[in-house]
Design brief:
The complex is a heterodimer of chains A (166) and B (258). Helix content of chain A is 27%, strand content 21%. Chain A has 166 residues and is an alpha/beta fold. The chains are: A alpha/beta (166), B mainly alpha (258).
């Protein structure tokens, strides 16, 4: 019989190991920053990790799953399972404050909480991550990965990625 | 020798899932054909991104169909080992890319439907379907916005872009009626609250279509004759050609991986 504290300890070690895995496409963010890591549980001594995709077609999910399995093995946790859950659907509102700051420092404008995705031709104000100006314009709704769009700053003339509200 | 097509235990829910999954896969595949050929780099990325979203939706729906059927299949069996007559997608989504205007109008007609459709499906009593709908709805909103903007730019652009956009509308319009197709297989699912009646989103679809087409200085055809058949496996000649490319590897080298 495993004691409760031993289970808690295993759960914490597993969470810490999984939480340190970074997004392969935005390596400054961990999957915990992103809100992709949803849950770590222990059942009969086995660790079960639940993650959720940002976009259904996101090709990084396979890579993230593999990275979590490796991270857990490195932490001495064998035989863990990683499963994908869809509900509740991931939203950029789950991104941590720390994650938003790291994104901005990296040169990607962070998603705006509760942003105006719904409007068919909605105007959005996105601040340039380089100079902070909001005199910016969208170049393309679709950027280098599923979760980003392509913008340009009219003030400093720099192009930049914006992490789309979702 | 090529591998045999699979047989499927077609319950109403399995049929429903395959119809929607096939829409997403075939439209996603069509968009992937643009990769490296789009009119500009930003659009190349946009079309590939939308294709990726749609193929992601298809994967979830196929995987769920496999689980519901319970015969040990995977998403790949449905995508790679069914022949034309077993595919149940809308005729609209299998139409060739044509010029850029044809691709954009095809996307617009579909996304103007998919966006409200998946939003309504979030209320499904089937938890898996409701979860897939919640993801798809967010992605479809971007597809609708992007294609709407292009419809306006093309329609209200040059004489040539206007002419091509109008030709695309005239060509594709007859395939839009099938968006609202439902049959006796669906009736029980609709009554049980598992799926919604597509008829309930027709008004919203038409109002989006009218708004954008009119802002684009384009016209909807007067002709209201609608073509159908895709939902029961009667396809245009284009789907066979598409499948021969999509399935070639798995048909010629069964189980190949890399």
């Amino acid at each position: 019989m495993t004691s409760l504290s031993a289970i808690d300890d295993l759960k914490k070690r597993a969470w810490d190991a999984a939480a340190a895995v970074v997004d392969p496409e935005i390596p400054v963010l961990t999957i915990a920053d992103l809100g992709v890591l949803r849950d770590v549980s222990v059942n009969d001594g086995r660790v079960d990790v639940a993650i959720t995709p940002t976009y259904l077609g996101c090709p990084a999910m396979n890579m993230i799953t593999l990275e979590i399995e490796l991270a857990l093995e490195r932490a001495g946790i064998a035989g863990a399972t990683v499963r994908t859950v869809l509900s509740p659907a991931w939203t950029t509102d789950w991104m941590t404050e720390d994650g938003r700051r790291k994104l901005r420092d990296y040169g990607i404008a962070p998603p705006q909480p509760g942003g105006g995705r719904r409007a068919l031709f909605g105007e959005q104000k996105v601040a340039c991550p380089q100079c902070g100006s909001t005199d910016t314009e969208v170049l393309s709704e679709f950027g280098s990965t599923s979760c980003k769009s392509l913008w340009r700053c009219r003030a400093c003339r720099e192009p930049f990625d914006y992490f789309k509200c979702h | 020798m090529a591998v045999q097509s699979i047989t499927i235990q077609e319950t109403p829910l399995v049929v429903y899932l395959l119809r929607r999954a096939d829409d997403s896969l075939i439209l996603g595949h069509r968009l992937s054909e643009w990769c490296g050929h789009a009119p500009m780099l930003e659009e190349d990325m946009a079309l590939a991104n939308m294709g990726l979203d749609l193929i992601g939706q298809a994967r979830e729906l196929y995987s769920y169909a496999a689980a519901v059927e319970g015969a040990g299949k995977t998403e790949d069996h449905f995508a790679y080992l069914r022949d034309v007559r077993q595919y149940k997608n809308l005729l609209l989504v299998e139409q060739p890319n044509g010029d850029f205007a044809q691709t954009i109008l095809r996307q617009f007609f579909y996304s103007a439907f998919a966006d409200p459709y998946w939003r309504a499906m979030m209320g499904s009593k089937d938890a898996t379907l409701a979860a897939i709908a919640a993801k798809s709805e967010k992605e479809s909103a971007y597809h609708l916005r992007h294609s709407s903007e292009w419809v306006m730019r093309l329609g209200d652009g040059t004489e040539e872009s206007h002419r091509r956009a109008q030709a695309a509308i005239d060509n594709l319009w007859a395939f839009t009626g099938e968006l609202f197709y439902r049959d006796e297989d669906d009736a029980g699912l609709i009554a049980g609250g598992v799926v919604i009646d597509p008829e309930t989103v027709r008004e919203g679809w038409l109002s989006t279509v009218r708004e954008v087409i009119s802002a684009a200085t384009l016209k909807l055809p007067d002709n209201d004759w609608m073509q159908k058949g895709g939902r029961i496996g009667h396809h245009s000649e284009h789907l066979g050609h598409l499948l021969s490319e999509l399935q070639h590897l798995q048909r010629s080298f069964p189980g190949a991986t890399w």
